[in-house]
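Re: weekly structure request thread

Next one in the queue (526 aa):
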Amino acid sequence: MADTENEKAEKLAAARKRFEELKRKKQPNKKASNSGAHQKEPTSSSSPPLETQHHEATTVIEGSANDMGQQDPMDTDPTGPTEHGEKLVEDKSPEQPDSSSTNNGPLVSRSATSEVLLETLPEIYRKQASVIDELRAEKQQLLDEIKGLQSRAQEGSKAMVERDRALEDLAAVSEELQIVKERNGVEQATLLAGAGEASTLKIEVASLNRQIAHLQSQISQKDKTIIDIRRDSTLSSPGPEGVTKQEDRIENMSVELSESRAALETSVLLANNLKLERDSLKTLVDSMKVELETTTRNTKDLSNKLNGLTQSISSDSAKNSVWEEKSSRQEETINELNRKLGEMTLTIDHLKQQNQELQASEGSMETRYRDIERKLANAQRENSSMQLRLAQLKSSLHESSTKAGPLTNAETNILSKEGDGNGDAKDMCRFQEGTGSSKSSSADHLWRQVLADENSQDFLEVDLRAVTKNTAQTQSILEPPLERDDKRRFLTHRVRKELESWKGHRINLIDVYSAYDDSYSRVFDV
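Done, posted below.
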């Protein structure tokens, strides 16, 4: 609605400008006529505003008609409506003094005309809107028809594609007809079906052509109606309302006609494209027919060769019988060999399984052997270190014994218990008992230091000579190291037994040391 109001305002402005131009052109004549009118009726001085309003209303209608005439591409004479408007102005201008010459009624008549004009303008707009709505409805109908035709054209193109496929099927069927003569009935049925589809496609194309012709006839009829309306508008000079109504209708119809023509052109182009595609398909069908003829000739040649081969096969049938006997014998031998081969494969699978089991056991034995070697090496290293430490202790003990003198009974008992494994402590006791010494205090201090290093620092605070007098105290002090000695002897016995089981094998004591628990490492602690 805003667009229509803007257009109306523009038309009003253009009409006013044209009216002013016409007024300027015809001003001398108007002055002469108005001077005589003023001399006759001096009371008509208030008429020019009403006259200008009346002229403005007429020029608004004339301006809208001129605009419509300029916008209409079918109008060949755009200056016609303006001339007609000028004539109306010229006809009405001398009538105004006559209307003003009535007794005390010029103001009433002019106000009545202005009121009539004001009342007719909404009616004109309403009628124009109704006409526009009708034309839009017709336009929408035409667009719907065009869309329907386009959809039908698309369906026709799809039908053409289906027809192409049907033609391809027909070509395949024709080839099968020439190759296999037993399927003649089925192929004839398919050919009839393809012909029916082709006929239906032709009927659809003809219907589309009829629809296009119908649209063209409708467009031509509308063109004729527009021409008739313009002719009637030029011949008969209706009122301003009818002129504007007809011009608006003509303008809208011209716009719709242009749109319908464009749609018709597109539909015609689609029809032409369909025709071109149909022609190309016909050419393809012709080329396929030529190829079909060549394939038929090739099939005939192949059939002749096949006949010759059948004759040669019949001649070779006797030879084939002999070869069949030989092949039967060979098949029997092959079956026996296959049976033996199956038995051999079973034995091979069994042997492979045993080999895998042996390899797995060998791998586990190798890993165990490596672990034992590793532990044994660690044990040997610890043994060597313990032997070095024992030698150092022996040397230090020998030096202290030479300086201190003979040992006491408690010390000899401790050495005897600790030396049950190798006999070195017993020899040391015998040596010290044979030699003797007068420095017992230094020996006590040395043994306390040794026991403190071996067990705990409480031995530095214990008097060994006083402890020998109290048996309970000596037992509480010597019981933990004796238990450790017993445990060490048990573990050494266990290690010897384990090593005897591996006698004759290469063992890495480092692996043995790392594989087992801490008991093997504690065996070699001094």
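The two ends are 116 Å apart (CA to CA). The chain has 15 helices and no strands.
Next request, please.
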